[in-house]
Amino acid sequence: MPTASAPTSGTTLFPKPSGRLGFGSGLLLSAGDRKTAVRLLETAFDNGIVYFDTARLYAEGLAEGMIGEAFSGRRDQVILVSKAGILPISRSLTRRVFNKAMHLSRKVPPLGAIVPEPKGAEPTFGVFDVPRLRKSVETSLRALRTDHLDALLLHECTPENAADPQIRAFTDDLVKEGKIRTYGVAPRAEDALAIARAGISFGPILQLANSAWEDNISRLSPNDSRLLVTHSVLGSRFLASSEALLGDHLAGSRWLDAFGIDPTKGAHLARLFLRHALQRNPSGIVLFSTARPDRIRENIRALEEPLAASQMDLLPELLRGL
Asked: Among 293, 292, 273, 291, which Cα is nearest to 231's?
């Protein structure tokens, strides 16, 4: 059974989990119903994953509740990281009525023209005032069925947010209250680099996109000592490359020669990209998301065999040829 312990202060980094792959919860709604999504999370845990990344935003505000249901009985065995700063689409009565009306309008097309989109249909970004931040954290704790987060990250924050002394004081207060163990930032890539260039230090964790297409790690200072959590390895650009390889037999042959895999098999290709991501972030965590239990088991195999240095350099080069 995997085990994990949490840090004891706001400046202590996580002990390295058993395996450096973390599970992102953004695709939980794609797994099917709630019961199936909870089983998916349990499958990730049963296969050795202990780091679970979530946010108020994910799965239309339902992801934290699913994680809470999956791990309430083994809280001390998982690392739970959530975010504040973006509020999900409202699931109010107005929203539920609208969703039912839209479902009906698909069956009776003329109704679609007379069902107005309710206000508040988009997530609310930039929610960094302290009262709403506190409410967001309290909501996360209730949904996750825990009295503390292992880390709280500022979701898509700007340099101004990260430098705000009121936000810093708030997160320090949360540490003193025992509601979070530590904190950090999860900005867009350009904001992450701007925060680094400005010398703004907000906690010991930085989460940002990094992949073979967009090597943001190389743009950070080599002296950056924060725990680096990377994501978007298997995102939309991975899917586009997978489709391109399906239709290009010559390119597929080059990939087979270079990496010894069949690039037309999605599981093989995903493992290759995760291996690359793990080696680009050798002391950190690499997140992946999937709605398929079998892909969890396949992806974890990326930890088994490293790529040669020549293969690390060759992957971005071959991507440019697609």
From this structure: 273
Give which of 55, 57, 49, 37 is closest to 74, Cα–Cα. 49
Q: CA–CA separation, 135 vs 184, rounded Å?
A: 18
d(CA 133, CA 230): 24
Report the phi/psi class of residue 80: left, alpha or beta, with left for phi > 0 and alpha for psi in -120 to 50.
beta
pTM for this model (two decimals): 0.88
pLDDT tens readout for residues 170-189: 999 999 999 999 999 999 99
Measured CA to CA, the distance from residue 264 to residue 56 in angstroms comes to 35
Q: What is the pLDDT of residue 101?
A: 53
Handedness of CA 285, 291, 293, 295 (dihedral sign): negative
H helices of the chain, in order, are 34-46, 58-61, 63-71, 93-107, 130-144, 159-162, 165-177, 189-197, 236-246, 249-259, 266-280, 293-300, 309-320
Q: Which residues of 87-112 are buried (b: 16+ CB within 10 A; e: fewer)?
A: bbebeeeebeebeeeeeeeeeeeeee
Determine contact, residues 55/18, Cβ cutoff 8 Å.
Answer: no
How does strand 79-84 pair with strand 51-53? parallel
Q: How far apart are CA 62 and CA 90, in angstroms?
A: 11
Is pLDDT above 70 for 134? yes
What torsion, rounded to 10 degrees, do the Cα atoms 171, 157, 96, 146 define? Answer: -30
Distance CA 72, CA 45 (A): 13
Backbone torsions φ then ψ of 31, nearest 5 degrees: -75, -20
Residues ≥6 apart with Cβ < 8 Å to 242: 263, 266, 269
Rounded to an integer, what distance in angstroms lies between the CA atom of residue 168 and that of residue 179? 15
